[in-house]
Amino acid sequence: MSTQRLTDKMLRGLKPAASGQIDVWDELLLGFGVRVGTTGRKSFFVGTRINGRYKRITLKPPYDLLSLADARVKAKAIMSDAHAGIGPELRKKREEKGTFGAVAKSFMQDYAKNHRTRDEMQRIIDRYLAEWHERQISEIFAARSRSCCG
Q1: CA distance 44 to 100
Q2: Which CATH architecture has domain 2-86?
Q3: What is the pLDDT of residue 147?
Q4: What distance in Å separates the CA atoms of residue 56 and residue 48, rounded to the nearest whole number?
Q5: What is the DSSP string of 105-131?
Q6: pLDDT for 95-113, tens place per residue?
Q7: Is the separation of the CB atoms in 28 and 73 below 8 Å?
Q8: Alpha helix (H) residue ranges in the chain
């Protein structure tokens, strides 16, 4: 394991390992690095502690499809979450639960299941609010507060 300043030029020049893998850690962002396998594939990773346990997280997609700058941004976000005790799995669950579609589904199961207008509510959600299903609730509230109270 070596430590170097990761640059695009340096990454392009990294040669595949003869056997096993080579890890190169970044000088600028501690805990961030790149792994080069025998096939020459380069993948960024973050090594951090989440609730006291070391975790190595591989960033996707690999280097050719993910730029160094974007990988650093992702790594900083992962490290920030890790400092707060939030792992990637928990982050994904929170993001999925925070969508309008997830909230609407929960609403229909918990609140509207016994209402006689349940079918009409579901029709409105499916037909008129379909484009909102993947939107985060926080985005919807932020847009609403900017438009009404700005």
Answers
A1: 32
A2: 2-Layer Sandwich (3.30)
A3: 63
A4: 7
A5: HHHHHHTGGG-TTHHHHHHHHHHHSGG
A6: 667 788 888 888 888 788 8
A7: no
A8: 8-13, 68-83, 88-97, 100-110, 118-128, 137-149
Kindly report the pTM of this predicted structure. 0.64
Helix (H, G, I), strand (E, B) or coil at 32: strand
> For the chain, what's the residue count?
150
The predicted structure's pLDDT at residue 149: 57
Contact status, residue 112 vs residue 106, Cβ threshold 8 Å? no
- As a whole number, mean pLDDT of residues 85-95 equals 77
Tokens of 90: 């928990």
- C-alpha 122/C-alpha 118 separation (Å) is 6
In the prediction, which pLDDT does 144 show? Answer: 64
Rounded to an integer, what distance in angstroms lies between the CA atom of residue 16 and that of residue 78? 27
* In contact, 112 and 118? CB cutoff 8 Å: yes
Q: Could you count the other beta carbons within 10 Å of the beta carbon of residue 86?
A: 15
Q: What's the pLDDT band for 148 if we cut at 50, 70, 90?
A: low
What tokens were used for 80?
A: 């920030």
pLDDT for the residue 28: 93
